[in-house]
Amino acid sequence: MITHAVIFAPIGQASRSDQIVQRLANAIITGLLEPNEQLPNETDLAKMMGVSHITIREALNTLRANELIYTVRGRKGGSFVCENVRAKSSGMHPFKSISTDYLSDLGEMHSAIISHSARLASRRVTEADIARLREFVLVLKNATTPEQKTQSDMRCLLALAASSHSARLANQELQLQAEWASLVAVLYRSNEVFPHVVTLYEALIEALASHDELNAMTLANRLIDTFIFHLIDQKMKYTLSEG
């Protein structure tokens, strides 16, 4: 699944154990990793995330101490996602460790990637690209759970970046989604933003299909701006509720 490729993508250099804890905790709390789902083993996690076994073990110990995962010993054992984590993990909510300024900065970075992807896609997109985008947006439109909506949304964004036919842009989008996915999952717990997002995706595809560069870039920017507006609003509500 594309969401797992995002969750387990390579980690940056600084505070690697903390980054792993934050990424996996966000994925668990927002439901991207489901209750009782088994994580890859330590060896595979180390390879996938580009860190040492010691770093992975330290991160898993922290997640275990916070009752987000549990370990089963034996031949069929491993690390599994705990049930009912939202009720006991308010201290690790994705909004707890980020500010509105951080969200604005993240939005600017994401907007730059997606709008430039739309710009290039409007020139380079093929009929096969358009067919794939339409298929992914239809899957998004028919999604019913927050997890399905988030996974479908990430797939749409990656497909858009891939339609630019720039491997670097597609890779940048994949890396950014490690932060983006768990935040979008929070928004999709309600239906407030979802219909508007679907409408923007549908309009964006038509702009790409007609090779309308200016409109495609405008719609791509509006798509990310919509997410950021609602994320900042939710962050402010979260801050007030915690205060």
TrEMBL record:
Keywords: DNA-binding, Transcription, Transcription regulation
Protein name as catalogued: FadR family transcriptional regulator
Gene3D superfamilies: GntR ligand-binding domain-like, Winged helix-like DNA-binding domain superfamily/Winged helix DNA-binding domain
Residues of the HTH gntR-type domain: 14-84
The organism's place on the tree of life at top rank: Bacteria
Signal peptide boundaries: none
Keyword DNA-binding applies: yes
